[in-house]
Fold:
Amino acid sequence: MLADDLRDMAPRESGWVTLDAARVKLFADATEDWQFIHLDEERSAAETPFGGCVAHGFLTLSMLSKMSYEIMEGLEGVRSSINYGFDRIRFVSPVRVGRRIRGRFTVASVDERDGCLDVHWDVEVEIEGAERPALAANWITRLYLDG
Structure:
């Protein structure tokens, strides 16, 4: 049964994703968040403790969707899935533009419902080479089952 398989699933890591300047600019344009800390390298280095531009926290968070597709690959019996919400999100460390991130997903619990499963994930987004994660979250995805 899929619910039991998920409960027994070992933690999984996604592949690395680069948060380069082009991706950050596209996100800034899509969200109309053009704060200089994301787009102006010289000013960010001079006026912030980050040493340069940092990616939007919400960009980092939104990459969980891409990362989760890799994590869910190979699960049989799932017709579709949706983002059901978060119980907790913490932006722990800023991600410098140009750095790579990846998600580490651990199933915390699974709630069985009629025709679907609510999967509660403990997620950390790692920054390559950094000791502290970019973010930590408790994320719920709803999986709609075949049949």
